[in-house]
Amino acid sequence: MDSPVPENETPVLPDMIGGSPAMRQVFRLTRQIAASSTTVLLTGETGTGKELIAKALHQLSPRATGPFIRVNCGALSESLLESELFGHVKGAFTSAHENRTGRFEAAHGGTIFLDEINSVSYKLQVKLLRVLQEHEFERVGDTRSIQVDCRIIAATNRDLMDEIDAENFREDLYYRLNVVPIDLPPLQERREDIPLLVDFFARIYAAQNQKPTPEISNDFVSILQKYSWPGNVRELENYMERCLVLSTTNKLTVELLPLHVRGLAPLRTARRPMSDSPSLCQELVAVGLREAGEMANDLHSRVVSHVEKELIQQVLRSCMGVQTKAATRLGINRNTLHKKIVEYGLEEESR
Predict the structure, then answer these.
(1) Domain locations in the chain?
(2) Segment 236-295, tens digit of pLDDT
(3) Which of 12, 35, 102, 163 has the greatest number of C-beta atoms within 10 Å?
């Protein structure tokens, strides 16, 4: 497949690929606010590129020569995260054998990226609020305040307003973080970017595996554009690497893709087991799992819609219609779930 962009064209943002209207708006906003020190809140589903935008904000800012410190707030317990963020002094707790510098101190003069900010405990949110307001904090076990100058970028794949309603997130902290929000659209809402991403990942993984850049069939790209991408760009990247490794020729074909991407197996959007509809199975058998032609394309769309609607309906019922809980169980953004509810006419199942 020919390169979708000229070889000498500069990327809109470092390491970012996309020409869809939604992504161009993200790029414009990122460039517009990069030079400031304002706090930014990145929202969007897992795998949409929030960390890449955070890095771009840092690289395009006057702080680019300073450190870029990333903290995954969801990967640590409350006590470990507090020590990780703010540091501790010797003797602060049993295993504190020496003083330790925290991530905020390490980010002085640069940028700190707080990923999965929704995972921070209510107690730690108070300390974060103080850093945002007064640019100071104390190490764990210390009384001496430390001044810090760093830009704060936070990210979440949850709807923080729902977390506020559930009393899991402080409203005052939300408004301090949400000075400039940037929402990353899911891949299924920018399908026109898929050919660009396919070409980009094909070149990257061909080079890594010491292979020539492969030819990509039109059917290959067409199938990818019809898939719903619950794992977003990260999922696409993984499948492209898989195809490059498994390919025995210099061409990427549909057969290299997993069955569920091709519509030949149930869509893997659920984190819980689900049962297939008998009519769906009969439909798949009736067409003999054909992979080409209008009938197969029509079947693929109906399979995806049927399974997706049934899944969302079952999860909504199990969650008593609470959209926040249902979105969490499905592993998708609440806004995306709401769009699907309207699309499939499931308003009566939700509240």
Answers:
(1) 21-184, 269-351
(2) 999 999 999 999 999 999 999 999 999 888 875 444 444 444 444 444 444 454 444 555
(3) 102
Burial class, 97, CB count within 10 angstroms (exposed 0-12 / middle 13-18 / buried 19+): exposed
Token digits of residue 75 = 């990967």
pTM, rounded to two decimals: 0.72
Q: Among all chains, which residue has been given the structure tokens 């308003």?
A: 347
For the chain, the residue count is: 351
| Spatial distance between the Cα atoms of 336 and 342, rounded to a whole number of angstroms | 10
Residue type at position 180:
V
Q: Outline where DSSP puts E strands in the chain.
A: 40-43, 68-72, 111-115, 136-138, 145-147, 151-156, 180-183, 215-216, 251-252
- The Cα 101–Cα 124 span in angstroms is 17
Architecture of domain 21-184: 3-Layer(aba) Sandwich (3.40)
Nearest-angstrom CA–CA distance, 52 and 13: 9
The half-sphere exposure of 193 on its side-chain side, counting CA atoms within 13 A, is: 23
Q: Is 173 exposed, middle or buried (0-12, 13-18, 19+ CB in 10 A)?
A: buried
Query: Which letter does DSSP use for residue 214 in this model?
Result: P
Could you report the per-residue pLDDT of 117-126, keeping only the tens digit for each?
A: 999 999 899 9
Structure tokens at 318: 């199990």
Backbone angles phi, psi at 135, to 5 degrees: 60, 40
Q: Where are the beta strands (DSSP E) in 199-335?
A: 215-216, 251-252
Angle between helices 78-86 and 122-134 (to 10 degrees): 20
> Would you say 54 and 48 are in contact if contact means Cβ atoms under 8 Å apart?
no
Are 20 and 192 spatial neighbours (Cβ–Cβ below 8 Å)? yes
CA distances from 1 to 215, 242, 280, 336 (A): 5, 18, 34, 32
Topology match between the domains 21-184 and 269-351: no
CATH code given to domain 269-351: 1.10.10.60
Beta pairing, strands 111-115 & 136-138: unpaired
